[in-house]
């Protein structure tokens, strides 16, 4: 799976013993070791915006070491209401619907997600 952040507020993941989830910490990829009967909580882009960047949306990917075994995981994403306005001192106000539409437009035109950078006046990608 391609490197990305989740567009949600939070993501709750249950993965099997096959594992493969990796998170970016600084400039280094760290493998998340599967622990039985444990849930993994990822903070998403909307949480980052709502917290004024106090909490960061984690970049992550999936890389299976053992390609002979299937990987099974279930993820539950928590999103704000589509018309809920997200306000932050670091980003222009936006609704989740606007954010989602911009992410989809970027993926279609650029082949990748830009995400919150589109909504930051400090970014050269600001709309």
TrEMBL record:
Q: Tell me the SUPFAM superfamilies matching this sequence.
A: Clavaminate synthase-like
InterPro entries noted in UniProt: IPNS-like_FE2OG_OXY, IPNS-like_sf, Iron_ascorbate_oxido_reductase, Oxoglu/Fe-dep_dioxygenase_dom
Entry-linked Gene3D superfamilies? B-lactam Antibiotic, Isopenicillin N Synthase, Chain
Please report the stretch or stretches of sequence annotated as the Fe2OG dioxygenase domain: 1-80
Q: What domain of life does the UniProt record list for this protein's source?
A: Eukaryota
- Any Pfam family from its record, for instance, is 2OG-FeII_Oxy
Q: Tell me the protein's name.
A: Fe2OG dioxygenase domain-containing protein
């Amino acid at each position: 799976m391609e490197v990305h952040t989740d567009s949600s507020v939070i993501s709750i993941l249950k993965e099997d013993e096959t594992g493969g989830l990796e998170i970016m910490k600084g400039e280094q990829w760290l493998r998340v070791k599967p622990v039985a009967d444990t849930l993994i909580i990822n903070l998403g882009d909307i949480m980052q915006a709502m917290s004024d960047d106090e909490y960061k949306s984690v970049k992550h990917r999936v890389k299976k070491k053992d390609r002979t075994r299937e990987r099974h995981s279930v993820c539950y994403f928590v999103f704000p209401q589509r018309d809920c306005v997200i306000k932050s001192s670091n980003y222009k106000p936006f609704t989740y619907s606007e954010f989602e539409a911009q992410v989809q437009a970027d993926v279609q035109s650029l082949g990748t997600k830009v995400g919150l950078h589109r909504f930051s006046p400090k970014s050269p990608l600001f709309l």
